[in-house]
Amino acid sequence: MHDMRWIRENADAFDRAMEARSHEARAADLITLNDQRLSVQSRMQEAQAERNATAKLIGKAKATGDEDEAQRLMQATSDLKARVQALEEEARNVDAEVQDALAGIPNIPHGDVPVGRDEDDNVVIRTIGEPRQFNFEPKEHFELGEALGLMDFEAAAKLSGSRFVVLRGALARLERAIGNFFINTQVDEFGFTEVNPPVLVRDEPLYGTGQLPKFAEDQFKTDDGFWLIPTAEVPLTNLVADEIVPLDQLPMRVTAMTPCFRSEAGSAGRDTRGMIRQHQFTKVEMVCITEPEKSLDELERMTGCAEKLLQKLDLPYQVMTLCTGDMGFGARKTYDLEVWLPGQDRYREISSCSVCGDFQARRMNARYRPEGEKKTRFLHTLNGSGLAVGRTLIAVIENYQQADGSIVVPEVLRPYMGGLEVITAA
Q1: Is 349 a known active-site residue?
Q2: Which DSSP string do the residues of 116-139 spell out, in sequence order?
Q3: Active-site entry in 349, 362, 369, 414
Q4: How many domains does the chain contain in total?
Q5: Can you give the residue range of the structural domain that contains 80?
Q6: Dihedral over Cα of 27, 33, 39, 44: its sign
Q7: Is residue 294 domain-shared with residue 219, that is, in the same domain?
Q8: For residues 8 and 29, is the Cβ–Cβ distance under 8 A?
Q9: Distance between CA 240 and CA 290 in Å, rounded?
Q10: Does the annotation mark 83 as catalytic?
Q11: Is 332 a catalytic residue?
Q12: CB contact burial 12-38 (16+ within 10 A = b; e otherwise)
C-alpha cells in the first residue's frame, strides 16, 4: 500500500516508478481521486458541525417559549442529519475507491534495481559452483524418478488431477529429509524462530501481504471462505498485523515449513511434466520484520542464508537481481537464486528473497515506536524461500544421478536418511 502524501509530494518519482514496472497508475489520477475524498470529508464535517450547532439552539428556543422557532430548528436538524448520512455514505464510497486504487498498485522499486520488462532483463550478479560433468546424457528428474518406481504422476492424476505427484519410498523420505535439514539449519545456525502456522487463512492476511485483491485467481479458496496459503509468508508476516512491535523484539526472524498451494492460473502449457510447477508443494519460508534502516542489510543476510543451504548441498547456482518488470507485486528489491539442473541444461529458480519496505506493513498496520519518539512508524518486511523443498529434491535428483539411474544421497542429508548413501530402484 502506498502513502498518498508521498505520492502527492513525489508525483514525478511515482510516475517514473510505475513506468518502470509497466503499470498504468498515474499520480495525477490518484491525487484527483484523493482530493474528492478530502472534499467529501470536509463537507461532511461541516454538515456535522452545523447539525450539532442547530440541535443546541432547539433547547434555547423551547426555553424562551418560541415553539415555532423550535419546530423550524428541529426540521433543520432532521434535514442536516439526512445530509450528513448521505455525505457519510458518499465518503465511504470514495474512500473505498481510493483504497481499491492503491491496493492494486505495485511497490516502488529500490533505486538500484535494474529497469527492464521481463526475465530477460534480470542481471546475474554471481555464479557459485561449476555444473557437474557427466560421462553420460543426464536425465530429467521425472525420468529418473519414474524409472526408480518412486515418482508416480499417474497415481496423483487419479487422485487429484494434473500438477500433483505421489512420491514413494526413498524419494518420499528424501523430500522429508531436505525439509528437515532446511528448517533445522534455519533455527540452529541462522537464528530463526520456528513457527507452525495455519495453512488456512482469512481474506485479511492475503490482503496484508498483497495477494488480494489483485491475485485472487492464483489462490485456492474453500467453500466456507478460507484460503489455502500460497506461501508461509502470508501467516508469518501477518503475525505483526495491527501490532506495535516492541523495539527490543526487532529484528524478528521467523521460519516455517509448510505445504503451499497455488492454482498456477497463468502457467498453462508451462512445465507440464515433472515437479517444477505443482499445485501443492512444500517450502521453508524465511520472514524478517525490522526497522527501516536495517532492511537492506537483512535482505543480504537472508539471501546469504539461502545460499548457504545450496552450498551445503554442493549444488551449483547463480544469484540474480530481478529487474523492475519481473519483481513480485510487493517487492522493492528481489534476489532470485537459480539452481543448475543438468537434465534441463539450465538454471531454474529455487529461492526468491525480497525486501518490501513498508508496503506490506501499511496494509497490515504493523508498526514500531523508535527509541525516544512518541509517534509510531511502519515496519519493514522481508521474505524469502529457504528453500523450496520440491525444487531442491529435483536439483538433488538431477545433480546426483548416476549412469545406472541411481541417486547418490548428498552427505549432509544422510543423517536424515538413516545413513542411506544411494537410492536405487524400488
Answers
A1: yes
A2: -SSGGG-EEEEEES-PPP-SS-PP
A3: 349
A4: 2
A5: 4-103
A6: negative
A7: yes
A8: no
A9: 11
A10: no
A11: no
A12: eebeebbebbeeebebeebeeebebbe
Tell me: do 250 and 198 sit in the same domain: yes
Exactly one of 8, 43, 277, 369 is catalytic; name it.
277
| Catalytic residue (choose from 51, 140, 391, 398) | 391
**Does residue 94 share a domain with residue 125?**
no
CATH at 47: 1.10.287.40
> Where would I find the H helices in 189-271?
203-209, 233-237
14 and 147, same structural domain? no
- Tracing cell 502449457 back to the chain, one arrives at 269
pTM across the whole model? 0.92
Question: Which three cell numbers mark 179?
Answer: 525439509
Average pLDDT per block of 10 residues along the chain, 426 residues long: 94 96 94 93 88 82 79 83 88 91 96 95 97 96 97 97 96 98 98 98 98 94 97 98 97 98 77 89 98 98 98 98 97 98 97 98 97 95 97 98 98 98 93
Q: Does residue 109 lie in a domain region?
A: no
CA distances 203 to 88, 120, 146, 351, Å, are 25, 34, 39, 26
* Whole-number Å distance between alpha carbons of 164 and 210: 26
Residues in the chain: 426
C-alpha cell at 53: 450547532
Of 173, 262, 363, 367, which residue is the catalytic one? 262
Asked if 22 is an active-site residue, the reply is no
Domain check: are 131 and 64 in the same one? no
Please name the residues in contact with 131: beta carbons below 8 A apart, sequence gap of 6 or more: 316, 340, 342
**Catalytic site includes residue 262:** yes
Which member of 351, 352, 354, 385 is catalytic?
A: 352
Q: Are residues 157 and 260 in the same domain?
A: yes
Grid cell, residue 404, equals: 545406472
